[in-house]
């Protein structure tokens, strides 16, 4: 908890120092480069297969960061960045400007709405907005916002309307350490305290959060 609190304090200082992102991608150029992305993420960035994330409407800075780290995962042999058998290979030939252009394009699109099953609303809302102090779990809303929109400058992703299956897989990867590109290990620290039931509930709750 101390690590998380310190990181949040540092981020608040960073956010207050700047009111706008310096991101300089070209959305039109990104559209022209996006054809290969459509196979998994859909032509409009709303992945038709739920194991892949929706990237339409995601923060450009966050998409850019993930593309950088997918490429780093491949070039470092998995020792750094984020290693994924599909995405790391896709990111390898991309230049820095390609990544910025693709990020700008997909962030300019609209993420399709999702839904939350009624049976997880109460528990999911409590865990997302308040956390669980007894288990040392902070509120998800502290970083991702009350509506799940995240924040561009801190590179906290938009999580509302995301496919539950994708959210579930990422929380499990953070929990077991197979995904480790989170700032100061924040997500790994939190995910390690989540039960399988917590992950299931949060994943479904986020699907319709708005």
From TrEMBL:
Positions of the Cytochrome c domain: 25-110, 119-210
GO MF term list: electron transfer activity; heme binding; iron ion binding
Binding site for heme c 1: 37, 40-41, 87
InterPro entries associated with the record: Cyt_c-like_dom (IPR009056), Cyt_c-like_dom_sf (IPR036909), Cyt_C_IC (IPR008168), Cytochrome_c4-like (IPR024167), Cytochrome_c_Oxidase_Subunit (IPR050597)
Location(s), subcellular: Periplasm
Positions contributing to heme c 2 binding: 140, 143-144, 187
PANTHER family on file: CBB3-TYPE CYTOCHROME C OXIDASE SUBUNIT FIXP, CYTOCHROME C4
Name of the protein described by the UniProt record: Cytochrome c4
